[in-house]
## 1
Amino acid sequence: MSSILDRIRDSVASLDVDSTLSYVRDALNGGFDVKSIIDALAMGMEIVGKRYEEGEYFVSDLIVAGEIFSEAMAILRPKIVESRRGTKPLGKVVIGTVYGDIHDIGKNLVATFLEAAGFEVIDLGVDVPPQKFVEAIKMHSPDIVGMSALLTSTMMHMKVVIEAIKREGLRDTVKVIIGGAPVTEKFAREIGADAYGENAYRAVEICRKLLEKRG
Ligand code: B12
C-alpha cells in the first residue's frame, strides 16, 4: 500500500487537484512534517516536468501543476510560519526570477522559508530586468540578493545581473545567492555568485552563513 506521501506525489503527477489537497490535509493532520509534504509535492512536479519533456503533457498541464502546487502551499504556509515564529530578525534579502523567466513557485518557496526564518524579504517577482535588481539594492540596501532561473536559456541572465551590480559599484555591498533547477554550485562559482542553494531549506542555512561572513 502506498503511503500518503506517495499519494501526494502521484496526485500532483496526475494533475488531480482535489486529491492532492485532501492528501495534503490528511498528511498534516496525521502529523507528517511540512518538509516531507513539500518534498512529495516537488517530486510530483518533477514527474510532471518529465511527462512534459516526453510529450505526454502540454504547457497547459504545467500551468495546472503550478496551480496545484500553489494551492497546496496555501494550506502549508501558516504551518511553516508558525513553526518558525519567534526567531529574531536576521537580514534583508532582495529576491527575484531573472528576466525572460516566469517560473516563480520555487522562488516563492525560498522567500516563504526565508521570511519564516526571520529574514525581511523584498520579492521583485518574475521576469526581473538587471536594472530592477540594481534599483532595489540602492533602495533597500539588502544584505543578500537572491536570483532564481528555471530555464537553461535564462540562467545566463544571472551573470548579466551580477555584472550590472558590479558596474554600479554595489557588488561589495551584497552577497549573491542563486538557485533553480538547472543551476549548480559550479555555475554559481563561474558567474561570480557567492553561493548556490539547491532548495528552500538550504537557502535559509546558506543565507544565515552569508550573514556571518559579512560580520
Ligand atoms: C510549473 C512549470 C511551469 C509553469 C510555471 C508556473 C509558475 N508560476 O512558476 C509554466 C506553465 C508557466 C511554465 C512555463 C514554461 N516552462 Co516550465 N516547468 C514547470 C515545472 C513542471 C515545475 C517547476 C516548479 O515549479 N518546480 C517546483 C519547485 C518547488 O522547484 P524549483 O522551481 O526547482 O525550486 C526549488 C529549487 O530549484 C530552489 N530554488 C529555486 N529558485 C531559487 C532561488 C534561490 C535564490 C535559491 C537559493 C534556491 C532556489 O529551491 C526551490 C524550492 O526547494 C518544470 C519541471 C521541473 N522539473 O522543474 C518545468 C520546466 C522548468 N519548464 C520548462 C519549459 C521548457 C517551459 C516553457 C519554455 C514551456 C513553453 N514552451 O512555453 C515555459 C517558459 C516560460 C518562461 N518564459 O519562463 C522546462 C525547462 C527546460 C530547460 N532546461 O530549460 C522544464 C524543466 C520542463 C521540462 N522538463 O522540459 N513552466
## 2
Amino acid sequence: MSNIIEIQNLMKVYDNNYTALDKVNLSIKKGEIIALLGPNGAGKTSLISNVCGISSITSGNVFVEGYNVEKEYRKTRDLIGLVPQELSLEPFEKVWASVKFSRQLFGKKRNDNYLENLLKKLSLWDKKNQIIKSLSGGMKRRVLIAKALSHEPKILFLDEPTAGVDVELRKDMWSIIKELKNDGVTIILTTHYIEEAEMIADRIAVINNGKILLVDKKDNLISKMSKKTLTIYTKQILKSIPHSLKKFNLRIFKNEKKLEYDYTASGNKTGITTLLSKIKSSGIELIDVQTRQSTLEEIFVEIVNND
Ligand SMILES: Nc1ncnc2c1ncn2[C@@H]1O[C@H](COP(=O)(O)OP(=O)(O)OP(=O)(O)O)[C@@H](O)[C@H]1O
Ligand SMILES: [Mg+2]
C-alpha cells in the first residue's frame, strides 16, 4: 500500500504560544482506517485542521497524494472530506439542499445520482425533504457525513464521529465506515471510545501533548503490549505461597480460592507449564484455570501514563 498522506515534522504553535503539535511525523496508507487516540487536548483536532488546510501550519510539511497542502490547497482540499467534531449545520435547511450545497462549494459538476445513492447508503433518503432541525442527533451526524462525502473525496476525516451517540447508532456508524473503506476511501478518525478503534481500525496512532507516541497495526499493538493474567482456581484458600512457587510472583487472595499469575503475551516462554506442574507437586489442588488479556484501553492508559 502506498501512502496517501505524508506528515513531516509538523509543528503547530497557536497565537498564545501554545505548542499543540510538536514535530509530528505520520504516514497514512491508501485505503486504511487509522484511529487517532489521545486524551482531551492531545492535538487530534489540531492535526486534522492542519492536514485539511483549515488552520495554518507553523512549520513542517503535509502532502496529500503528493500535493503540498499549503501550496496546492485547492487540489488537496478537493481530495478530502471532513466531518468536524462540532455539529455545524444550518437548522432550517433541508437535508437534500444541504448536501447538494456542499457539493457545489467544491465546484463539482451536478450529480444527483451520486447524492441519491449517498443518502440511501446513509439511510437518509426518506429524510431528504426534512429540515435538519427536525432530525435526531444521530441523523444529524449522518448528514454531516453525507456533506463531507458530497464531493466524492478519497480521504475522509471523522473527528469523533460517535461522541454522544448511543450504542446502536455507533454500531451503524461503524458499518458505514467499513463500507466506505470497501469503496476505497481512506479514513482517519479520532475517538475516545477505545472499543471503537478496536472494532474498526487497521492501525492506531497514539498522540499525547502534541507528540505521536506510537503508531502500529492494531493487532500488533494488542499482541505486543498486552499482558495476560492466568487465574488459577484452587480447592482451598491459600494462606501463603509455597517456597517452590515464590519466583512466579503469584497473587493470593484473602477470601477467594484463587491465585493470579501475570505474563506477557508476546514471549514464547510464558512459564505456565512449569508453574502448573510446580503447583501440582506442591500439593495445591487445582479446580480450574482461566486467562484474560489486557484490553486496548488498558494498553492505551499505560502508554499515555508512561509519557
Ligand atoms: N485556537 C487555539 N488557540 C490556542 N490554543 C488552542 C487553539 N485550538 C486548540 N488549542 C489548544 O491546543 C491543544 C490541542 O487541542 P486540540 O483541539 O487539537 O485537542 P484534541 O486532541 O482534539 O482534544 P479533544 O479530545 O478534547 O477534542 C489544547 O490544549 C487546546 O487548548
Ligand atoms: Mg478534538
